[in-house]
Amino acid sequence: MKIVSVITARGGSKGIPRKNIVEINNQPLISYSIQSSQNSVVDETWVCTNDKWIAQVSNKWGADVLMRPDYLADDEIMPDPTLLFFSENVDFDLLVFIQPTSPLIKSEYINEGIDMMLSEKYDSVFSVHEDHWFPRWDTDVNPIDWDINERPRRQDKPKTYIENGMFYITTKENLQKTRLRYGGKMGFVNIPIYDSFQVDSYEDLDLVGRLL
Length: 212
Fold this sequence. Notes:
- The structure is a single chain.
- The chain is an alpha/beta fold.
- The protein has a single domain (3-129, 160-211), classed as Alpha-Beta Complex (Spore Coat Polysaccharide Biosynthesis Protein SpsA, Chain A), CATH 3.90.550.
- Helices cover 27% and strands 24% of the residues.
- The strands form two sheets. A seven-stranded mixed β-sheet has the order 5-4-1-6-8-7-9, sandwiched between helices. The chain has a two-stranded antiparallel ribbon with strand order 2-3.
- A hairpin with a 2-residue loop joins strand 2 (23-24) and strand 3.
- The longest helix is centred in the middle third of the chain and has 13 residues, at 107-119.
- It is globular and about 60 Å long.
- The chain starts with a strand and ends with a helix.
């Protein structure tokens, strides 16, 4: 059983230029994902990018690099075609897809997901955080899915979970069959909300820097 991780990191971020290698606490953003993967049971840690600067930084932090074509790195592309490209160029049985925008990722979360795949025979596992119910309103100030005259208590609402985008784990067979990062028999790893923040803005950079 060969387990590899891949961190997909394109160079064309518009919100924060070169976001994936911007520094947080004197480390490039992508390094946190690389280090967590290296400290897990993963056999090989890869970065798949179209950007030579990201490739150089990733190599410096000990990751293998697979360059991808620019058509797999535009603003519209989803990660799944890049994962398929990776699966056609790198040998593995189990793939851990990690997004570099989740620097609070920990190796134990990755290991928990891998253990679920192996011990519980899932086809794919992904990270989530528990969603706590609060009254939601639309732009016309109408309640969404609740009645203002019968306001529910939070504890009376069923538990729901939100993908936090930290990681997705699947087999090569399942990836190539579904052409998606998840499918088949699915499970999830519940990540605490304080470790679930993603970096998408300068405000996020400041917040995550305080949490690291």
